[in-house]
Amino acid sequence: MNLELFLAKRIHFNKGEGQQVSPPAIKIAIAGIAIGLAVMIISVAIVIGFKNEIRHKVIGFGSHIQVTNFDSNTTYETHPIAVSDSMVNALLDEPDIVNVSRFATKPGIIKTDSEILATVFKGVGYEYNPTFFQENIIDGSFPVITDSTNTNQVLISKYMSDKLHLNVGDGFLTYFIDNQIKMRKFSVSGIYQTNFTDYDKIFIIGDLNQVRKIGGWKNDQVSGIEIMVDDYDNIEAVNDKIYFKYLQNKDAYGASYFPRTIKQLNPQLFSWLDLLDMNVWIILILMALVSAFTMISGLLIIILERTNMIGILKALGYGNNNLRGVFLYLSLFLIGKGLLWGNIAGIGICLLQKYTKFIRLDPDIYYLSSVPVEFNIVYILLLNIGVVFVSLLVLLGPSYLVSLISPAKSIKYE
Questions:
Q1: Which of 74, 134, 310, 370 has the fewest CB atoms within 10 Å, counting from its CB?
Q2: Phi/psi at 279 (nearest 5 deg)?
Q3: What sign does the CA torsion over 87, 92, 96, 97 have?
């Protein structure tokens, strides 16, 4: 029989009278653990959700990897590269690549009867996967783009719709400056809203062939290709692989290929997202310290209150290490209760936010209309294990207090 565990249970579940100090101390210790764990779970869920949502929006507009002309600058006025069907098919044969689509961009100015707005026309090919925009369409539908016909239908953002007073089915004129000013009339097929304001303000989505005609490009020329991979964490390796395997040679018109990952295309944004990890670590450390200190204070109070019992056990020959084991078992009971309530509170609040979105955000600042949460069971388990480990580790020191208690004096202690 494990005597330490037996004694810890008797102390923990003792409901007798006379214990005026330990019940409040125990409740405070349990509350400290529960609040600390709940805050940890909520913080991790929010940061993971926020990073994934922002990353999803950026990738939705630009894919995982873009291959463009090496001579292109950082604007949307690009120099074309030649992309053949055989190149696209070869890339699709790679096991890590799930989609390859051609695109072209051209800056322009939208003019209506009362408003003027600068924009970027992004033309996409028939192989483009419109899932991202379909998820964010609030009215109408994505333009029907085929390989055999051209269309003047476009998808505009809600910001443009409100600014230019355009609805689904309305037509508008867009002016493009090439060697000369060229005008095109487009028809609104749908309206999207991603709340990613920097992009919502400028991008309209339409047919790739429109940009080819405006720029006077050949049928195989585009601004670039967008590549989606099956694992986001693998984009750097895939980027290097496709360059050295397919893109070292120049195209048919002498242009050089230049592949870049979405991180390289948006370094400031992804650096900002990486900084969020530091904030989470600070929160985790602070909450771990709060939980540890409440447990230390609770354990010290319990030991002092049980001084008489400790003296009697020592007089009966019970060793210091065994007594320390009793109070560490007792601490484990308290930690377990704290973990239970902390998981219930943390996961409960996250689920409430996930399905009700009661905490709202300003999309102009945060790019999201509500606080995002995303569960990761592995992280939640690691947080629970971490709290148990840290709490027991910091309690090793205070548990040595039992070795300082003298049997002769403590038996008389009241």
A1: 74
A2: -60, -40
A3: positive
Amino acid code (one letter) for 93: D
Backbone angles phi, psi at 21, to 5 degrees: -100, -45
Strand locations in 132-217 (E): 137-140, 153-157, 171-177, 181-192, 203-207
In the Cβ-directed half-sphere of 318, how many Cα atoms lie within 13 Å? 21
157, amino acid identity: S
d(CA 347, CA 345): 6
| DSSP 8-state assignment for residue 401 | G
Check: CB of residue 137 under 8 Å from CB of residue 192.
Answer: yes
In whole angstroms, how far apart are CA 214 and each of 6, 121, 151, 156? 84, 11, 14, 19
SS3 147: coil
Contact assessment for residue 365 and residue 265, using Cβ atoms and an 8 Å cutoff: no
Question: What pLDDT was estimated at residue 18?
Answer: 47
Q: How many other β-carbons are positioned within 10 Å of the β-carbon of residue 369?
A: 13
Burial 37-59 (b: 16+ CB within 10 A, else e): bbbbbbbbbbbbbbbebbbebbb
Tokens representing residue 195 in the block: 């709340």
CB 350 within 8 A of CB 41: yes
Q: Which residues contact 149 (CB under 8 A, 6 or more apart)?
A: none
Q: Which two tokens stand for residue 197?
A: 């304001």
Q: What is the pLDDT of residue 301?
A: 81
Outline where DSSP puts E strands in 86-159.
Answer: 97-111, 116-124, 137-140, 153-157
* Cβ(123)–Cβ(210) below 8 Å: yes
Residues of the chain falling short of pLDDT 50: 17-18
Q: How many CB atoms lie within 10 A of CB 304?
A: 15
Strands 181-192 and 153-157: parallel
Sequence letter at residue 141: S
Over the stretch 149-205, which tens digit does the pLDDT of each residue have?
889 999 999 999 999 999 999 999 999 987 789 999 999 999 999 999 889 999 999
